[in-house]
Amino acid sequence: MQSGYSNLAFETDFFNYLLRYYYRCFNYMTTEEINYTNELWQLAHSFANYTNEHLFVTGKAGTGKTTFLRQVISNSNKRHVVLAPTGVAAMNAKGVTLNSFFQIPPGYYLPVFADIPGKAIYSIKNILNNINYSSAKKELIRRLESIIIDEVSMVRPDQIDLLDEILRASRGSNIPFGGVQLILIGDLFQLPPVITTEIFATYSNIIRQGSFLMPPLSRAQN
Predict the structure, then answer these.
(1) Most buried residue, 20, 22, 42, 124, by most Cβ within 10 Å?
(2) Which pLDDT value is given to residue 210?
(3) In DSSP terms, which residues pair with 182 in a beta bridge?
């Protein structure tokens, strides 16, 4: 959904305002003091509700991220879903998990040519080829206007990559995330993604050796 708010001047003003008053409005106020009537709150809510631009909302514990999430959900005029990386986080946000909504296996997702048995590492291409959504789910995804992800600090980059690919394929669009707005909420200094040492080592080796990452770096060095 686009509106008169979605223009460069508004977006620039928003981010300048956010950076200038971030510590005053978020880091030095209690949850009770931060509410949907203050100026910054209204500006962030308008940005989420009246533009199609992506939004990242952060702040340390107790600064009102959950309250903001609830206000956005209850006052949104967009077709949206609320997602989270884990079951507990999804329950707290009154949503569902990323894996459940998009019907993808738990694991790690890379643009490799084949799945890696026993490592829970899946080829993004294979996942896209094996997705079999019902007509209702296809229509739901096609009609989505925004996706709200809570506790985004626990979401890995490869999950975001897969989300992007699924939305592009499902909506028949090459626009990032198929043109769906992402509203990401969380504190990157809190809970990190859960990954075992073994998987991390395998994952890192694949990334370092992957031709999908190395050519630009090689050309730059030559």
Answers:
(1) 124
(2) 59
(3) 147
